[in-house]
Design brief:
The chain is mainly alpha-helical. 63% of the residues lie in helices and 1% in strands. Strand 1 and strand 2 form a beta hairpin. It is found in: Cell inner membrane.
């Protein structure tokens, strides 16, 4: 019996710890307690089984392992991006974006749904926090969508799904943690995830379009009296065309002598500032050149877009690291909130408190995972996991599909931080053994975790939306009508089409890895094009001579001695080979000294 337990200690430990997590015990303490408990068992059974490599002095490695978490530069980006997102959320940026984009798409059937999807993508690229995105859009857009007779399930599904974009759109916290656990660059993870994220946003918009064709009564256009900004789309198109023209003009003239990435940054900055400055002048001096719609769109959209470019653009171009990009993003969020006069001491305190709590939450989970990992690796748990996964049928595809199912099920019960810190380090070695690109693997897991946020009955995004959706009939102050409550079943049914889209996206990324692996196309070097030249000091035609010989034609003055004469040391024999037919001089004997006389210093 003891031999059986010792041989199967790894699966017993894994099953017990996962069961405690699913029951609901605190993650960090469960991991640490499970690691220490099974460490004691492992030490006692180490004499029975050679597979267990645990001994008491190994506990002394924990302080150094925990200290290693504290100076991890990659994880420093987590509090920066969290703080940036909370400042922007509390400065009511989501409210301005939803109102403006809703007015822009107002005449279109399903315009508010398009606005929710696009604002969800913008919030994801600036906040990176699912809870903040879902709650902000739910509080602002859900009452408006219900006011104008949107189907409750369709409206809540669009809001919940758009909020989960923060899981996959850079600078997602999931991607930062995933890159750290996989041992890969955060910048590469961002570049690899960008195209799939944009495809997901496009498919969401396509789903809204199809819904408006099949069920037009579910998503009506806004009535004309609610479009307070009026028309003026052609004015907006003219401003965009002028900005593009300024970009290309400055790119090829003023900034032509700069490096490629610097030219892109400065040309885009100049074009953006020109459009924003002209819109502000048009509003302040009431010039009437631009329409109200154009003014509002430019003034509201450009600051968050500029912040996104400041953060992601500098990371993608290699100008800043993700940690530096997060610091710049946090500074930019403070500047934006201050410019809108919405940065108060209360807002700053709330953002700092929430950032500190989330950062401490992440660190404690990571500390618990380190304690768990030391014991699990000491009992060959990593070998057990790797052999189990490598024995799956189907090779690479079978492995990816199985892991997708496992992570999806766990995502219904566990937070993404917990999955990233527990499961990813166990899955990565098997993926690498199969030759799977770890950035590709990380993006697949990121989309999978995004899907798990939508899955009934445990999807976190659905819980966030349920907490702010009306649970009983309520009176709309604008229309004066009594509107019905939003049922939990409607929220669940509304999420189903978006869950199907997410699964199709996972299969698409698995089938076409180039959607992610394009990140390394710029860094690939063809070995056949590499030429290595070894410099020589001697005759190029006579490789058998001295390496310090003189070249055949050194271009020196006639009569100049051959060899490499050291400067300032006249009288020393030249270094090199003798001329053809010339005999090498015999070495001269050292002068004799009379040792009976004192030395002379003349």
């Amino acid at each position: 019996m003891i031999d059986l337990i010792a041989h199967n200690l790894a699966p017993i430990m894994f099953t017990c710890v996962m069961a405690m997590l699913l029951i609901g015990y605190p993650v960090a303490f469960t991991l640490a307690a499970g690691g220490l408990f099974f460490f004691v068992i492992g030490v006692e059974l180490s004499s029975v089984s050679s597979e267990i490599r645990l001994f008491w002095p190994l506990l002394q490695s924990h302080p150094e392992r925990i200290y290693g978490i504290m100076y991890n530069d990659t994880l420093l980006a987590v509090p920066f991006f969290t703080f940036m997102g909370l400042i922007l959320e509390r400065s009511r940026m989501a409210e301005d974006l939803l109102d403006t984009i809703g007015q822009l798409f107002g005449p279109v059937r399903g315009g508010l749904a398009y606005a929710v999807v696009l604002v969800g993508a913008l919030l994801a690229a600036t906040t990176g926090v699912v809870a903040a995105s879902v709650i902000a859009m739910g509080l602002i857009s859900l009452p408006i969508m219900m006011r104008y007779n949107y189907n409750s399930g369709f409206a809540t599904g669009a809001i919940a799904a758009s909020g989960t974009l923060a899981q996959i759109v850079p600078p997602s916290l999931v991607l930062i943690v995933m890159a750290d656990q996989l041992g890969r660059s955060v910048g590469d993870m961002y570049v690899g995830a960008l195209l799939p994220a944009l495809i997901i946003v496009g498919i969401y918009c396509l789903l809204v379009f199809v819904t408006t064709l099949v069920r037009p009564q579910w998503a009506p256009a806004l009535p004309p009296e609610t479009r307070t900004l009026g028309g003026g789309v052609w004015s907006l198109i003219a401003v965009l065309a002028a900005a593009v023209a300024i970009y290309f003009a400055t790119y090829h003239t003023i900034f032509a002598d700069m490096r490629e990435e610097v030219r892109v940054v400065w040309a885009a900055t100049t074009a953006t500032l020109a459009a924003l400055t002209f819109s502000l002048l048009n509003r302040h001096f009431k010039l009437g050149i631009l329409s109200r719609l154009t003014e509002q769109v430019v003034i509201v959209l450009i600051p968050p877009l500029a912040l996104i470019f400041l953060v992601l653009g500098t990371i993608f171009l290699g100008i800043a690291t993700p940690t530096e990009g997060g610091a710049m993003g946090a500074t930019g969020a403070l500047v934006m909130a201050l410019a809108k006069r919405r940065l108060t001491l209360t807002v700053l305190k709330q953002a700092l408190d929430a950032t500190t709590k989330l950062s401490a939450f992440v660190m404690f989970i990571l500390i618990g995972a380190r304690v768990f990992g030391l014991t699990f690796y000491g009992i060959n748990g990593n070998v057990w996991i790797e052999e189990l996964l490598l024995s799956l049928p189907g090779g690479e595809t079978g492995f990816l599909i199985t892991v997708t199912i496992i992570v999806f099920i766990l995502g219904c019960f566990l937070d993404f931080f917990e999955i990233a810190f527990i499961m990813v380090p166990l899955l990565a070695p098997a993926a690498e053994t199969l030759g799977i690109d770890l950035i590709w693997f990380g993006v697949i897991l990121g989309i999978n975790l995004q899907t798990s946020f939508l899955t009934p009955p445990f999807g976190f995004s659905l819980f966030y939306l349920r907490s702010i959706a009306p649970m009983k009939a309520w009176k709309d102050e604008v229309s004066g009508r009594l509107l019905p409550a939003v049922k939990t079943g409607e929220i669940y049914r509304g999420a189903v089409p978006f869950i199907i889209v997410q699964f199709l996206m996972i299969l698409l990324v698995i089938a076409f890895p180039g959607l992610v692996t394009h990140y390394k196309s710029e860094n690939v070097v063809d070995p056949s094009e590499v030429e290595i030249t070894i410099p020589t000091f001697g005759d190029q035609d006579d490789l058998g001579g001295s390496p310090f010989g003189t070249p055949a034609d050194n271009g020196g003055d006639e009569g100049e001695e051959n060899g490499m004469q050291l400067p300032g040391l006249e009288g020393l024999p030249p270094i090199g080979t003798p001329e053809d037919g010339e005999e090498a001089p015999a070495p001269s004997a050292p002068p004799a000294h009379d040792l009976s006389q004192p030395p002379s210093f003349d």
